[in-house]
Amino acid sequence: MKSRNTMAGAVLAAAIGGSALVVQVQAGADKVGFPETYAQGAKWLVIDKPDRKEVHEHYATPGAIDAARKDQPMPSGTIFTLVRYAARLDAQGSPLKGVDGSLVKGDIVGFGVMEKRTGWGSEYPDTLRNGEWEYRAFTADKKSNPTLKLTACFECHKPQADRDFVQAYDKLKAAAP
Q1: Are residues 47 and 55 in contact, defined by beta-carbon separation less than 8 angstroms?
Q2: Which domain holds residue 165?
């Protein structure tokens, strides 16, 4: 009987701990507001996602490119914005391609934002923490998208710790300011 109680206690503790982690990841997102001036930054990467029928445009604040060129961490205040567009489709539902072979973008379907601020991130365990970065997703109408599990953002960027958690860091280095 004692081992059952011990096991039940362990399961309960794990469940509480797991839900606390989700709450922490969700709670930090409210620090990130929609970056209304994202398009004034540098569009440094465009990726076709034919499997998702989307085109992704990546914008960065100018200081991010300067820091990457110097192999330095991103400065506090850096914001990366991912703009997700639906690809335009042909009559069969396949993505249309332009004369350059790239997917033709249609309407915006959402945004992803990654922002760095001094002191952010301390509430996360080391297994999840991405330095001082926070993430937030927005719908096409620029409202917070609470349905996205931001833990996926932290997990995806975590392996890039040596590049200040920035995906495609070398492409950022090569981007025009």
Answers
A1: yes
A2: 2-174
